[in-house]
């Protein structure tokens, strides 16, 4: 092999995988096992002491899941990755080593609806809190950081509103405060955006979406850049101070750039148990093999459909960062140069009632809660995913009552436009 770094299209097929040493199987086998036989008692003891890396029990590690972890870490340009059972599990797992009761995370107002609920309500049960800020206002982000802040959290391309975060600027604020920046890269995928190159410390994914790509399994992943100095302050004792559960082992001192990844497996998965199963990892590995091809078509179709909708008199506005009319169009080139993704919203003349009629009249578009599928999908966020939010929160998240969200699939764009055309006719008649 040449020494030149491999391209994305090669890595999405090969990174982390090798022919199965036992059988030569070329495709990564589904290691459907919970346990692994130890060579002898010393081997078992070394594994349990974290002195040797290997497979102990599938709540912590599994060979099929390990291939996926290496694949995603490679595509994101990270040092290591931890897969878990869903995107929401990944968010809790990502915060867990950083937070303690009384600590907070400064987060963008523009987030996936479920994340807003998780951060504004559920994490309070752990004694954690989230401070929501407009991430276009850097002074406000800085002002929201206090002595108890342990992380900054945003999405690269925010779901659902066609919003793009200025990752470099936010990473600058995080750096200055000595805090890790966590970026949810679900909507962009590493094909469109690699947050670590913009200064992110950790990247989280709902692998349920584009990475798997076909709406078959839920999963999540946390990628660690390996670049954060956990020992620079006393804010992150889980990573820098002696760990009582491992005889006083210090993760950062022992594992260096892999400290966060090891902690995520040895403490996070071991004790929270939000484990990805090998079947899910298999489906996601299948999906990732074609990620770049799918994302190219997703973006191409999204641009075509968004342009058509923007010119349609039955539509009030389209919020897609890939349209020159978007206030975030200028950020595409620096944050996600291969395209602004395939999720956007548009406002239907006739408001809430017209949106409901539109959703019911569509034939190719499915009315579903997921996104990032090969199929085109639609949802009226205000009556579904963003239903638990106040109208003010809905608007801030780009999910006002007169707006529907599209997840543009990889079908023929002419068919998607024809479907929207007939449904808009019924909705606004
Ligand atoms: C879907 C989604 C999540 C949550 O992931 P699940 O796999 O559904 O738990 C988090 N963030 C974003 C941007 C998402 O689209």
TrEMBL record:
Gene3D superfamilies: Aspartate Aminotransferase, domain 1, Type I PLP-dependent aspartate aminotransferase-like (Major domain). Pfam families: Cys_Met_Meta_PP (PF01053). One of its GO terms (cellular component) is cytoplasm. Keywords: Aminotransferase, Pyridoxal phosphate, Transferase. GO terms for biological process: cysteine biosynthetic process from serine; L-homocysteine biosynthetic process; transsulfuration. The keyword Secreted does not apply. One of its GO terms (molecular function) is O-acetylhomoserine aminocarboxypropyltransferase activity. Signal peptide: none annotated. Its cofactor is pyridoxal 5'-phosphate. InterPro entries: Cys/Met-Metab_PyrdxlP-dep_enz, OAc-hSer/O-AcSer_sulfhydrylase, PyrdxlP-dep_Trfase, PyrdxlP-dep_Trfase_major, PyrdxlP-dep_Trfase_small. PANTHER family: HOMOCYSTEINE/CYSTEINE SYNTHASE, HOMOCYSTEINE_CYSTEINE SYNTHASE. Belongs to the trans-sulfuration enzymes family. This is Aminotransferase class I/II-fold pyridoxal phosphate-dependent enzyme.
